[in-house]
């Protein structure tokens, strides 16, 4: 491991986990109004440790982790005062602000090597939302779309493919429209957006194009635009399909596995790629503004597969940081722990990817008790002389034990590395 990597990593973490910084943000958000036994730095670090382990099912587990990281019995706190700190309305605001600071500090430090075809974009943004059930007592604040589950929240995420980190997140009721949380079009110049079918909005696509942005969005089943020009996957012109509506073209009227279409929607024209999946006996549709002269239909479909990375991030949050495990009717606790989970993931990923850019963040996240908790303990005890040694051990451990597994050829094109390799070929 290069010494400069350790120095830089220690510097970045020490600035963010600095007790004065954490306390200052606690005061600004109103979480800390007077000195208490539960100090903000200790609380934050114990939450990151507990949520990273993936086995916390209740507030009592967080409480035990806090006491477990104390230096002496005199620093132990009872459950009630610990719970009272989490139920403050300002707790959620504090966790959100800290997470936003972490995104601003750590995301810019990480850059993945993109394929040549994608490297011309300033960034590739992956958009998705994920919902999960919360305590029924929160139904008035977070109503659910499903009558069987009265309360649920939706987390709207924008993930940077270039940095392999979240850029923004918003917490809303499950009933909120996903489209309202797409990236602002004026900030999308020379960026590529990948989004699922729930984000189809042609007015948004038009504005995005006007601001110099690009997109590939999965089309929904109800999409039925007029076709201006049609070609098959090899680029051969299909004049008989011009003027038809999309749903008028089925397997009987055209046997092409892939159709590359120019479509009209209102006053605007877009590109639509449709593929027939024989095994599943269904069509899949992608809408884009990337020109056919530079991007083939195969490349459009291949690039879209990268969107799966945001699904994997949600899976990691739900499985490894217990998004779905805390049964509390307190809004501040629920929102605060969601933000704290994301904060834990960001710090975990940052350290892992600094150790090995191609590290499996999934594997690294499974052994945090070995490499992450000792680092957090050094910070919480302010054992500054031990931090370098523990960081060195963590980076060495990750580089040796969190390497990506060799994929079989049949599955290689489904992985991010496999997709990048094909785009470079």
> Total helix count?
15
Task: Give unreliable regions as ranges.
Answer: none
Terminal Cα separation, in Å?
Answer: 31 Å
| Sequence of secondary-structure elements | HHHHHHEEEEHEEEEEHHHHHHHH
What is the beta-strand fraction? 15-25%
Structural class: alpha+beta
Number of strands: 9
Radius of gyration: 24 Å
Residue-averaged pLDDT, rounded?
91
Q: Work out the helicity level.
A: 40-55%
Please list the strands of the largest sheet in the order they lie side by side: 3-2-1-4-5-9-8-7-6
Morphology call: elongated
Major sheet: 9 strands, mixed
Walk me through this protein's architecture.
The protein is α+β, with helices and mostly antiparallel strands and 425 residues long. 42% of the residues lie in helices and 17% in strands. The chain has 15 helices and nine strands. The protein has helices at residues 3-16, 19-28, 40-53, 59-68, 79-86, 89-106, 202-210, 297-304, 308-320, 331-355, 361-364, 368-380, 384-401, 409-412, 416-424; strands at residues 123-133, 152-160, 165-173, 191-195, 214-218, 226-232, 258-265, 268-277, 282-288. Strands 3-2-1-4-5-9-8-7-6 form a nine-stranded mixed β-sheet, sandwiched between helices. A hairpin with a 2-residue loop joins β7 (258-265) and β8. The protein is elongated, with a radius of gyration of 24 Å. The relative contact order is 0.14. The model has no long low-confidence stretch (mean pLDDT 91).
